[in-house]
Amino acid sequence: MASFQLTDKIKNFSLPPGLIGPVLITAIVVAAHLSFGILDGWQKFAIALAAACVTEAVLHKFVTGKWRNLSSAYISGNSAGILVRSPMLWPFALCAAISIASKYVFRYKGTHIWNPTNFGIVVMLLIASDSMAVLSIQWGSNMWAMAMIWLVGFFVISKVKLFHICAVYMVSFFAFAWIRSVYTGGMFLAEVAPITGPMYQLFVLFMITDPKTTVSTKNGRMLVAFLIALVEMFFRLGEAVYAPFYALFIVGPIALIIDKLWQERKAKSLSKSASVAR
Q: For residue 46, how many C-alpha atoms fall within 13 Å in the half-sphere facing its CB?
């Protein structure tokens, strides 16, 4: 009887939507740091987190006159604190601040069009590549720990019904990795290897599944995931180290704008049809 009750509790497990992201990224940070010492330093991590939260609080209050829940800023600050690599402190703070500020500056029809952390990382790579790098393979080769992080991440993502985005992207990545190996004459396993690293864990679990910057339909989200993997393939063929970030930076906003225009056109069509019916 107790086992059945436990099973029911697991099946009915849920988190408030606003807590899902923070809980997931906190679990990843704790597990990764305990396993590999992932962080570049607690001070740097804290600076990124504080910069994100302060920027969010100040800008939201300035723009709307209200205080905002900081869960989104918490996720962006964590991501910046994990991904940025620099011997200095300011790149952590600046990346986090740029990430949050992008939500208030680059908007289309009432919403921001770039995933904040993705925007911040790409801008920092463009303006300060001599002062920072991005985490890629520094977690080591403890595959059991990485597998646990993937499993926890996919479990939570499935609860918010966004697993299809991760699945399509990963299947596409493997397919394009095979194409790259055939085209370049390289080893298939070498082409696939990057997806096992920490950079991709954050990219797949947080950036391409960001509810605020994904399109409105399930089929649309799957198509966008495929296109991101496709564009990434060309960046990889050009030997771009941070190919997934560049691909999302290009594909994401274009897809979101097209989706907004399509929704607007559909709403006008339905309104016109309703008027004619009257």
A: 3
The reported pLDDT for the residue numbered 115 is 94
Residues 106, 119: contact at Cβ < 8 Å? yes
pLDDT at 222 over 90: yes
Say how far apart CA 159 and CA 162 lie, in whole Å.
8
Give pTM, 2 decimals: 0.84
In single-letter form, the type of residue at position 149 comes to I
Tell me how far apart the alpha carbons of residues 10 and 236 are, in angstroms, rounded to a whole number: 40
